[in-house]
Amino acid sequence: AKPYRDNVDAIVNAPLTFRDATGAVRQVPISSVADVAYGTTYGGIKRKDTHRLITISSNVLNGFTGPDVVANVQRALKSFPVPPGYAVRMGGAQEDQKETSDFLGFAAVGAIALIFLVLVTQFNSVAKPIIILTEVIFSIIGVMLGLAITGMNISIVMTGVGVIALAGIVVKNGILLVEFTDMLRAQGMPLHDALVLAGRTRLNPVILTATAAILGLIPLAVGLNIDFYELFNSGHGHFYLGGESVVFWGPLAWTIIFGLSFATLVTLLVVPVMYLLNEKLQAAFTGRDVNSAPPSVPADREEVEATTPPVLA
């Protein structure tokens, strides 16, 4: 009974019923067959995946961050001797972040693979999709540089989602340049002239679309809040920056801003250079003229003329 659970004397004096060798029922106190020894142990046995588990939890003090504390604990555990058959691993938020990062890595590979397949189908080439997908690498470099310069912390979830979103955003700039260059060459324009004209013609669309996306993300990045109800009723929107939303959405917005800004600038320089090198290598291996039209691109004069605005020299 519950009143006797904490009474050691009542427990050791409880009768233990058994049958002796003759079959007679007898009772003896537990103290006659067992001794009482005081010590420390756990109040219960927990299991996870059929393995026994002991959990040690704590909170983070003010002035410290979870990743910093986890890094210190992991460094201390490296010098801690772990007996054979035992394992020590981080749980809680750290375990959730690891699972999320693994999923985001798989999602990123899947997204890039799908984009690559679509580009191969569109250009009927393997080299040109690779040229376009290099923008994903440049966008990641831009994200790392932006976070390093500003000193922002990396959010495993939202930064990862932002990188995956960048993979689908930045490739459009490369598609504009490569596709328009192919159309100009199909019309008979020399390689160098086609690259220069494509860069000059597509400069405005590339810059404007990137600028529009960046400006649209700035309110989300800085946490601009507007009370629309008060704005329409009293004319005072109570504008303010920050709040809880910026903690969650800020890393995503800044990731896209940093990556898109850097990748857009690099695209206008690197993509034409890589396109030129690719065409020269193909011409060297196949023996065809580098200024000849690609065999996989049909000449469509109407489409070229419709999409080519007048360019002033």
Could you walk me through the main structural features you see in this protein, from its secondary elements to its overall organization?
The structure is a single chain. By secondary structure, the chain is mainly alpha-helical. The chain folds into 2 domains: 39 residues, no CATH class; 214 residues, Multidrug efflux transporter AcrB transmembrane fold, CATH 1.20.1640. It has 11 helices and 4 strands; from the N terminus they run H-E-E-E-E-H-H-H-H-H-H-H-H-H-H. A hairpin with a 2-residue loop joins strand 3 and strand 4. The longest helix is centred in the last third of the chain and has 43 residues. The protein is elongated and about 110 Å long. The N and C termini lie far apart (97 Å).
Could you describe the largest sheet, including whether it forms a barrel? 2 strands, antiparallel
Number of strands: 4
**What general outline do the C-alpha atoms trace?**
elongated
Measured between the Cα atoms of the first and last residue, the distance is 97 Å
Using the coordinates above, name the CATH class of the largest domain.
Answer: Mainly Alpha
What strand order characterises the main sheet? Answer: 1-2
